[in-house]
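Oxidoreductase structure dump, as promised
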Amino acid sequence: MAGQGTVGVGFIGTGMISDTYLENLNSFPDIRVVILGDLDEARAAAQAAKHGVALSGSAADVLAHPDVEIVVNLTIPAVHAQVSLQAIAAGKHVWTEKPISIDRASGRELLEKAAAAGLRVGVAPDTVLGPGVQTARRAIARGDIGTPLSAQTVMQYIGPDVFHPDPEFLFATGAGPLFDMGPYYVTTLVHVFGSVARVAAFGSQGRTQRTIATGDRAGTTFPVEVPTHISAIAEFEKGGVSQSVLSFDSPLGKTGYVEITGTEATMLIPDPNTFGGEVLFARAGFGEPEWESIPLTGVLAGRGLGVLDMARAIRSGGAHIATGAVGYHVFDTLASIEDAVNTKQVVDVQSSIDAVPLVAEDWDPFAATLSGVPVG
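structure tokens r here:
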């Protein structure tokens, strides 16, 4: 689908995360949010009124709207691939929340059908496109820490049932700490080291049931379907290893920890679930490290950067960065970690990707770069 001017976007799924997407996409001049859709049409209407979107309705209404070029898929993980395939069948590009799917077959099918139709797939997280991770990547690329050798990541806290009013899906197949939070950390590692070659992992489940702590359904219990603590090791195709903890079982909160060790220095990358933060590095030495800060470069924005990058690439004909291929490789890596937990064996990751490009330092999400009149 080609055209000039702002790119029309429609949402399918208007739950909790849609607020931040709408706040940001409505602030980008190159994006025009056309319509919101949801199984709960009243919820879609409420979000449309809240964020000044003219139209709302069902998923079918979004897919049928002629001005929608990109569908933003914010449904639950279990139907990510199904909804994305419907968008492709309707002739729309699609940006989907992570993970791309909950099984490899439907993820591959999505990419194959999109390619056959000449349509694009983008996959969250797009936090890695923000100045935090990008500044760190530029510093690594210019040799500030020497050759990257290894990494450690930690994401542990007591779990989303303490703050989310409807947390069941976060403890269901396709979620848990591995698939809900793992994409932020594995995507960051893939941006730094490239494709993952093989993984080993162990997992456990702290409780078989959880209780909702907030909202109208506080006190409601529900079953836990997945491991809620994962310890994983990864080896990368081009060298480097990482070890990661992902846990919904820890009363001691420690999140956003990404440490990259190189031949000359160690770098702390900001929380990959955010867009900014502080990039720190310490050179080799004895005793307590002396941390130096690297000033952030780039314009700080929020969720929706990936949608915008894809929209501009649609108009220019160039490549976007948070591609379906990257999203699939990250999912394949996470699924391989799950396989390793289940089999207690080292598992080879079957997919591979090219090096992920950097965001240009002068890339400005708040600039109006698309000329002409809106399509439609």
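The two ends are 11 Å apart (CA to CA).
lmk if u need the other ones
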